[in-house]
Predict the 3D structure of the following.
Amino acid sequence: MKLGTKKTIIWLLRDFSIKSIFFILFYYFKKRTNMINSKKEFLIVFRFNGKNIKIFLRENEDDFSILREIFLYGSYFRKELKDESMQSIFDIGAHIGTSVLFFNALYPKSKIFCFEPSLSSRQMLKKNLAINGVDAFIFPFAVGVEGKINFLFDEKNSSLSTGLKDLKNCEVESKSINSFFDFLGRKEIDLLKCDIEGGEIALFENYNNDTKIKNVLCEVHPHFYSGNKDIYSVLERKKFKLLNKKYSKDCYILFAKPE
């Protein structure tokens, strides 16, 4: 694994503490020499949007790659989303909290509701929100259908779930998106972000238009789809209009609004 482009190096030198740069360089050295410790974490500190952000990352994960995609390349940034209009956010597949910290830095007045069924990721999520003083709501559920579902995850890379070969299987509780609208007493939210590795089809198939999602940011992995099912046709049936995409490696971030 390579550290990345000139843009990444400039970003590190400009926004990261010296100690954080050392940890990241040492992490990449250990990756290249197969010295990774699966249980080791390291804390990095950097500046974003005028704030100091602290985040614990894990050596055996792609946590730094995800951090770079979100904060450096702006995978979830859209100029159409204004601070004053972002009062409520559903972060579905909140992972270790990288996207939550990004949204909190951009939209500090918003209430953020996090959904993460993986216990190890959820523990890191709580830790990263606490160290930054972010007061968000955390739910230990998958979002899609109602009931129990099989949740597939890579023990070496918890950012992956559902649909991959040779992964560990566990059963988790799943809820429909509208059940959370009901539970929270809400009729609308300003932004729904989802990164659930193909589970977005079930999420929107079970979405009831009696409630309103004003903006959708959805990470899409086309290789998870089979047959005639894809997220575009599902969103079209649910009366959403695709506005644009941002590409990132083997996936892209879809931005949509209701028609």
Remarks:
- Helices lie at 6-15, 18-32, 63-72, 98-106, 119-131, 177-184, 200-205, 231-237.
- The longest strand covers residues 240-248.
